[in-house]
Amino acid sequence: MSALILIALVVVIVVGVIVVSQQRSGANAARSLDDAKADARQAIERLGGQVFMLVGDGPASKQALADAGERYTAAGSQIEQATSPAQARLAKQTAIEGLYYIRAARSAMNLDPGPAIPELDGQKSAGAVTEDRTVDFEGRQIEASPGPSDRTPNYYPGGRVAGRPVPAGWYSEPWWKPALVAGAWGIGSMFLFSAMFSGMAGVNYDANAFESGAGDGSDAGAIEGGDGGDAGGDMGGDAGGDGGGDGGGFFDGGGGDGGGFFDGGGDFGGFDF
Prior knowledge:
273 residues, elongated
């Protein structure tokens, strides 16, 4: 009889320990989520303050602010739906992307770019545009520049799009946008990348590394002597904003297969930017 009582006591103690452990674990998880949400909301509020305060004075700043506004809306939606610290961190990352667009808009308006912004995933390894480039591709001219102009009003803060690195810089057209939307790159992207960035000091990898998704200067396809690394500076990031106003028709597939450059890369449904 005493043995049965002892066993019952042991069972009660074990169950009690399990219940207390689960309660403590749940409390810790809730606290982690709350902390992650609070951290994300700080970045979102900072972004919102800039989005509602600034008014663009030219094509480049207006486009960058539009992209920042899109990131603000997306981050707000993500944080409201976040049920884990990882999802809250994603919302923060989106807000930080928006802050890079704000920084770009301020620079385009010759304003103080503001305080430093945390580095984005893939930002440093993607590199940055360090010189003006104009290439002919599929019957149109595509330009890249380290600074904004009427010819290069589309900013990208750098980082990875659909698994491949895209250098930070200002572009005549958002050539990365179909991959951002569709989640996959079309046939021809490697050739455009090679034509636009081959030999550029700020891009420490070649077209093969771009194609394989490496782009960190450490693989066999890296370009020796390139500085990569910190070349991205404050221009880096992973954003995904609207990106490109009209885009000169570069992505206008007319509702078909993505048009010219992205033929063969799947049906992008036109993407008339």
